[in-house]
Amino acid sequence: MLNFELYNPTQYVFGKDQTQKLATLVPQNAKVLLAYGGGSIFKNGVYDQVKAALDGFEVIEFGGIEPNPRFETLMKAVEIIREQNLNFILAVGGGSVIDGVKFISGAVNYEGDPIEILKNRVLFTDVTKVIPFGTVLTLPATGSEMNSGAVVTIEATQEKLTLGGSALFPKFSICDPSVIASLPKRQIQNGVVDAFTHVMEQYLTYPHDAFLQDRFAESILQTLIEIGPDVAENPTDYKLASNYMWCATMALNGLIQKGVPSDWATHMIGHELTALYEIDHARTLAIIGPNLYRVMFDSKKEKLAQYGKRVWNIEGNSEDEIAQQAIDKTVAFFHIMGMKTRLSENTENYQETADFIVNRFEERGWKALGEKQNVTIDKVKTIVEMSY
Ligand code: NZQ
Ligand code: ZN
């Protein structure tokens, strides 16, 4: 097993009617920026719950954080916090609002041009330099409620870039599965596939000796397979909703990643498809992931076979056959979850995509990705072309 440190300071508050605990979770005398997205919180009652819990606090509201949050929008919130000397942020929304708030949190006191945070992948490690924040999660998918990473898009250059660091964990996250009841089916489907792929990125690498981490990962995958199709059809079923929410958090709160290699190439390529065509994040993963497993088959086949046997109960004549069937099963699951797994089914202008992405990676100096750094530029090109 690889050496590791486990640090996760987020107070995770799970269950029905937990939003009222904001009254004690938000520091007394805090001057709060309440950040939210396009307005779903006004329709499903979450806004009212939050406002009731924050009665007596000084609150300034900032709405309009887009799905795939934009640097340009977030900078407006940075200005408000600076001008009004606010000292706490509450993110109420899905991954986009939470990620946006992580950027805002780091940018307020950043000395230098804030765009560097994204362009240079600045790491925030000093908690005294960031604005503390908590979250009320409304969409289980990204794990952003219990991790310290974020993804932000620069509108001007159509670039989707990451930021993070140990100072950017939420202080607390309120996770009430009842919020799933108001989610459009498409977003639930996205959430399940995003969480599933997060596990795959940290599991589907090569055989190693971290047995427990493999079992953690497999159990999350099995649970998502078990409940995913049902929760998309029955979002008011609390049993399904609660399992879905906890799976999504556990898929990317750092635990299953400890002591093991991880891949993340599917995400890095997928982010480009969102930046170029605004395809939902999870849907880019469903397009790229299976083709990455195909192109990197020799490198990943032992783990693919393990996944096929343990997660899908596949019995085949050879390890290679089981590994191949495991990819097919994954694609079939994505289809059940409403994904269209070809790029051409998601956008019309796909012909130049591979060349565009390859050029971008070269410009950024990204020569190779993946757990063995063997997803080279030519492999990226093949993966994307195979996805047309
Ligand atoms: O903006 P509002 O009006 O709130 O509507 C949102 C949005 O339109 C809606 N929604 C959220 N909760 C709802 C709801 N509608 C009804 N009822 C509710 N309870 O859903 C839409 C999508 O929301 P968004 O936050 O964009 O989705 P998601 O949570 O999937 O987040 C995606 C973003 O997270 C990033 C992605 O790249 C993408 O930008 N990721 C962040 C990660 C992280 N921080 O660790 C990891 C992921 O791999 C991912 O890259
Ligand atoms: Zn993701």
From TrEMBL:
It comes from the Bacteria. The keyword Cell wall biogenesis/degradation does not apply. The keyword Protein biosynthesis does not apply. CDD domains: BDH (cd08187). Residues 191-350 form the Fe-containing alcohol dehydrogenase-like C-terminal domain. PROSITE patterns: ADH_IRON_2 (PS00060). SUPFAM superfamilies: Dehydroquinate synthase-like. Residues 9-177 form the Alcohol dehydrogenase iron-type/glycerol dehydrogenase GldA domain. Keywords: Oxidoreductase. This is Iron-containing alcohol dehydrogenase. It comes from Flavobacterium cheonhonense. The lineage of its organism: Bacteria, Pseudomonadati, Bacteroidota, Flavobacteriia, Flavobacteriales.
